[in-house]
């Protein structure tokens, strides 16, 4: 590919060699380092390609070999420029186009987000606009590291951000998480400073005494304790708030009296059988749209901040909906131009009230329950059994029942610090009295 471009820039020709000994002609070309390619026999002659520079060296070789050279075709940039040398407007337009492309390529014309689900594109664009980061800004003013820092600082549930410039597009990749920003930084370790702060926070959190308490009512089915003192056993019934594993360890003397306490962060895997009341309600009626033929259309062309439109959206429809379609012009994959076109269509419709069939209601409620169950399973919650029934009324239908689950119910809470000074003072006073 590169070699073809070089040949085109320097120019090359296609020739036909005829005579008594064309083989000698080829040998002499090789001896004088004249590069030949595309050699093909053509009757009693040979056709081949050679560079323009090599073609100019052929005269002594032709005389020596008594061959005849016929120029078949001229190709390359020098011949193109020679052919169109009088068309000044063409060259002016060509170089003007190159200049405009170079000028436009120094700007950001599109901001593209990937991975965002909770935060919409519009919300993030408004935030960036507050930080003076907008389309149509020069690339030289785009600080990707600062963009990453500002987004992570403003949104705690965004745990990873990457900003890069692809052509004329600013590409921002986002990873969202329900955990806090600091916890996410500790897991990902994106920067050395943040990572150090996160590690310090984790160490401090580890040293803080913690109990594990029940997050909900249930019957213990499994408990594996790594640190702490278990307060329950398999088969015990617990209520929300009960201590499952204590982070306070009693230190006793020979008489069995508590003389001190040691504290640690409890750590355990505790599962229990729990119950969850499930309720899902839907209307048995819905509105079906019947579209009419009447509609309004508007076509527009947007060049930078200027808008050129044809048509109108004004209407007197009682019920209507707007459909918008917009496309931005681009060269290649990532070079976006500040030109976009699109259309807006207002469609008129009449809505009529319809009723779902019994089968449709059952399918919809069953599908909702399956999605709900899948969400529980993704959280590591096992559904052991369910007693969910569908009830269909005149205006509404519902799926109600109880789910029997097996899940982790441990929740961290700070350990209460106990004081033993009063107890020690009472023992001293009692000895003095005796």
The overall average pLDDT, rounded, is 83
Largest sheet: 5 strands, antiparallel
Q: N- to C-terminal separation?
A: 106 Å
Are there runs of 5+ residues with pLDDT below 50, and where?
179-206, 423-434
**Rg from alpha-carbon coordinates:** 40 Å
Total helices: the number is 12
C-alpha geometry:
elongated
Question: Which structural category fits the helices and strands?
Answer: alpha+beta
- According to DSSP, the number of beta strands is 24
Strands of the widest sheet, in order across it, are 13-11-17-23-22
Overview features:
alpha+beta; 434 residues; 5-stranded antiparallel β-sheet; 12 helices; disordered C terminus; 4-stranded antiparallel β-sheet; elongated
Walkthrough of the structure:
The strands form 7 sheets. This protein has a 5-stranded antiparallel beta sheet, covered by helices on one side. The chain has a 4-stranded antiparallel beta sheet with strand order 2-3-1-4. Helix content is 31%, strand content 45%. It has helices at 2-10, 22-31, 52-55, 59-65, 77-83, 88-104, 121-130, 144-154, 181-188, 192-207, 358-378, 421-433; strands at residues 12-19, 36-42, 45-51, 67-75, 107-108, 110-114, 137-138, 158-166, 169-176, 210-214, 218-227, 229-230, 237-238, 243-246, 248-252, 258-263, 267-283, 285-303, 306-311, 320-331, 335-355, 382-392, 396-408, 410-414. With 434 residues, the chain is an alpha+beta fold. It is elongated. The longest helix has 21 residues, at 358-378. Strand 15 (248-252) and strand 16 (258-263) form a beta hairpin. It has 12 helices and 24 strands. Helix 9 (181-188) crosses helix 10 (192-207).
